[in-house]
Structure formats: structure tokens, C-alpha cells
Amino acid sequence: MRVVLHRRYRFSASHRLHRAGWTEEENRRVYGKCANPHGHGHNYVLDVAVSGPVDPATGMITNLAELDGFVEREILAEFDHVYLNEQVPAFRETVPTTENICREVFSRLRGYPHARLEYIGIEETGANSFEYAGEAA
Amino acid sequence: MPMIYITRKVEFSASHLYHNPEFSAEENRRVFGKCNNPHGHGHNYVLEVTVAGEPDPRTGMVLDLKELKEILQREILDRMDHRFLNYEVPELAGKIPTTETIATTIWTLLEPRINDRGQGRLHRVRLYETPDLYVDCVGNGR
Do A2 and B107 touch (CB under 8 A)? Predict the structure, then answer.
């Protein structure tokens, strides 16, 4: 039996789905209203799943204060209440779909020193959610 | 036959505190923060239990949900609902009743009750302490 701890976080941000190399028509056809020129926003919910042995002295896989601090520094401080396309360097060249946000978030969190990152989930809205567990080994 | 995963959800409310008698008062406060407050505090826990199996062709069921409901009532709710987990649940005595510990204890209590019936196997125990903090115990079968 494996034990996996999940912690959910929230950030609100705007984005625009648009490729610089495509015509406006192409962008409109592929991304629809997500290509509107001034962008739009979502309340994202991030689910971080970590695993590891449970320390008998604390009953914990990892201390939540440490996990919270790490996610705050690595993700929330930079992603919350910003325009992702302009204010997160990774999305200057890469379209900030939730798929690509998952990849960026996973690569930032995989270095967590106190437990193994199993996967992350991101809800863009209550109806759209994505999970990413990194590249297959 | 494809596996079917069937989940039943129950809720219980309980109090707990985190305290390791081998730590100094200061260390307890540093490691456990406000969860170390001496009189404890409580949560509305939400427990989701998933059983995996192939439906019995005669009944179309992996297991009778009424039976699962009774197992959860007897093994978990009768033990933990409206209890102070540190003092009133023998299986947690001497342990730090974190969500990890409670979830693994629930797994240990349920696994024989569900698996020994001969049909369906315990696949996952998911325990929510709050909507933003939950622990999964997942069987090695998948």
C-alpha cells in the first residue's frame, strides 16, 4: 500500500491562447474566444500529490508548513494575480494552455526536497481539469 | 472482464492533537504548530473507500453497497465519529493522528473486512481532513 498526500492551492491569473507565428484567422479558428486580444482569467486550483515514508516521530510524509512554503515560493508568488503570458517568463514563448501550465508547474515542484512529487493536477474551471506526472521514465 | 472501481463516501467528525512526548514543548510547537494546542481541535473528515473487482454476473454487482455501508459503519464510524482520536481510538493510541496515520489505520481496519469476503478488493482509501488536504492509500494491485 502506498501513501500519497494531496494538498490543494489556488491562484487566479489571466492568459491568452495565441501563437505569434499564426495569422489572426488561424488563432481564432484554433483557440476561439481564448484568443481575444486582451486575454481573460481563471481561478485555478492546483493539486500537489507527494509520497514517501511516514515518519513515525511526526506521523507525516512531509511537514505541511514546508510544502506550503515551497509551493508559495515556486508557484503562487509568481502565478497568482498576474498575466501569465507576460509575467511568467516560460509563457513568453509557450502558449499558456493548462497543459503547458501543468508542465511548468511540475518542473518547478519536482525539486521538492522532503518528498517525492507524484503528480500535479490543475483545474482551470470546475469543468476542465488536467493531471501531469512528468515524462515517463 | 474489465475491473470496476466502486466508491462509497462517508463522513465523520472528530478531534485530535499532534504531540510527541519525546519532543520538548518547544519542538512540539515548532514541528506541529497550532495542531499542538493541548486541548485539540476538530475536523469534518470525509472518507472515500474504493473497492475494485469484477461484477458478479448473477447480481451485476462488485459488492453489495449495503454490505460496504455496514462495514464502514462498524469499523470506522462506530470507532471514530465524534471521538477524540488520540484518547478514544485504541488503534491510534501512542501515534500522531495525522491524516496519513488515520488513513493508513483505516486501510488496515478495512482491508481484511473487504478482501476476506471473496469478491472485490480494497483499492483506495481517500481521507479528506479538509477539502484542501487529503491522503490516498492505494493498493499495490494497480
Answer: no
